[in-house]
């Protein structure tokens, strides 16, 4: 059993990670400012409501607790918002992370799991995207994630600070037992938006562009179940706790589904007709984003369990109707 601090542990991915850590009998502390999350998503452990910008509080926290590792999920995630409000993203995703990492160094805590993003790659030059693909972020969100990765690499060389950066593609689904699920405000992810249209919470779902060079003209994305995402984090945590070296990995399903395929699959799962509204392309939306996750599979023996799109949508639908159905 290890003593683990999970920042952003009341959020979508963080709360699923906390649940998995608790099931593995770890001693879990959750730090979250609840700015875009709910304490109801934290199903155990020790919840601390605080902000990573508060250096005085962090000093007190680490002076009073000896953590074995920190898992860092406390980042803003809205790509469009990052373009409009880059200050917000650099302050939280970069400066607050630096604030945290520097205090970890002071208290000799050198095991760190970082929630990164496929946004570090930018416009893909080829697919599937492997770990060596050129990194050229298109927005401040992706830039902030890449900057932290560079800091972590330098800190490893200088201070022996061990970290694993996990570059997510499209996190999706919900706890199969519907204890927790996805709940962003505002929601920007395709699957929950589609299911909100199915449940009647939204009148329709937008399709942004139908003239991409894909089989049906809509964008193709790689959807990875949140439980599979967390199982990869757990393996990464075990790796560095046992003395492993720093690393970065892609986390995806390894297969792509188009927007229309997601909608059609959702209609089968929900047995509802989902109204669609055809809209113009959004700037910066690549036609295809699919992950090559072979490195983490080979290095940590990770295998996604929920690779079927219908299963991912079914878990998300159960969460939607449990919490939001009219």
Structure explained in plain terms:
With 326 residues, this protein is an alpha/beta fold. It folds into 2 domains: 3-172 and 224-251, Rossmann fold; 190-221 and 254-324, UDP-galactose 4-epimerase, domain 1 (Alpha-Beta Complex), CATH 3.90.25. The chain has 10 helices and 14 strands. It has a 7-stranded parallel beta sheet, sandwiched between helices. Strands 12-9-14 form a 3-stranded mixed beta sheet. Helix 1 (12-23) packs across helix 7 (226-241), helix 6 (190-199) runs parallel beside helix 8 and helix 6 packs across helix 10 (309-324). It is globular. The model has no long low-confidence stretch (mean pLDDT 94).
Overall tally of domains: 2
| Uncertain ranges | none
Number of helices: 10
Helix % is 25-40%
What is the CA-CA span between the terminal residues?
42 Å
Shape: globular
How are strands sequenced across the largest beta sheet?
A: 3-2-1-4-5-6-11
Structural class: alpha/beta
CATH superfamily of the largest domain: NAD(P)-binding Rossmann-like Domain
Number of strands: 14
Rounded average pLDDT? 94
Rounded to an integer in angstroms, the radius of gyration calculated over CA atoms is 19 Å
Strand content: 15-25%
Oligomer: single chain
Q: Do you know the CATH architecture of the largest domain?
A: 3-Layer(aba) Sandwich
CATH topology of the largest domain: Rossmann fold
SSE run: EHEEHEHHEHEEHEEEHEEHEEHH
**Main CATH class of the largest domain:** Alpha Beta
Give the biggest sheet: 7 strands, parallel
């Amino acid at each position: 059993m290890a003593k683990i601090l999970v920042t952003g542990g009341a959020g979508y991915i963080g709360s699923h990670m906390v649940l998995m850590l608790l099931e593995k009998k770890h001693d879990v502390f959750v730090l979250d400012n609840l700015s875009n999350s709910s304490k109801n998503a934290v199903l155990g452990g020790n919840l601390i409501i605080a902000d990573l910008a508060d250096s005085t509080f962090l000093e007190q926290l680490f002076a009073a607790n000896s953590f074995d590792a920190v898992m860092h999920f406390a980042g803003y995630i809205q790509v469009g918002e990052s373009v409009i409000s880059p200050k917000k993203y650099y302050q939280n995703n970069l400066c607050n992370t630096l604030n945290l990492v520097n205090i970890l160094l002071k208290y000799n805590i050198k095991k760190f799991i970082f929630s990164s993003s496929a946004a570090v790659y930018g416009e893909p030059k080829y697919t599937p995207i492997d770990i060596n693909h050129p990194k050229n972020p298109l927005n401040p969100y992706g830039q902030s994630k890449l900057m932290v990765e560079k800091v972590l690499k330098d800190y490893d060389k200088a201070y022996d600070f061990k970290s694993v950066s996990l570059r997510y593609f499209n996190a999706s689904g919900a706890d199969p037992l519907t204890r927790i699920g996805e709940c962003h405000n505002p929601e920007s992810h395709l699957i929950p938006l589609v299911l909100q249209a199915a449940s009647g919470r939204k009148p329709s779902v937008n399709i942004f562009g139908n003239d991409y060079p894909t089989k049906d003209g809509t964008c193709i994305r790689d959807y990875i179940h949140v439980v599979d995402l967390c199982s990869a984090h757990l393996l990464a945590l075990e790796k560095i706790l046992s003395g492993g070296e720093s690393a970065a990995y892609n986390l995806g399903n390894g297969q792509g589904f188009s927007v229309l395929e997601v909608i059609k699959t959702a209609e089968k799962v929900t047995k509802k007709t989902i109204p669609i509204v055809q809209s113009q392309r959004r700037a910066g939306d690549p036609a295809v984003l699919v992950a090559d996750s072979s490195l983490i599979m080979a290095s940590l023996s990770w295998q996604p369990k929920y690779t079927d799109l219908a299963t991912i949508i079914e878990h998300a639908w159960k969460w939607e109707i449990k919490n939001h159905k009219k």
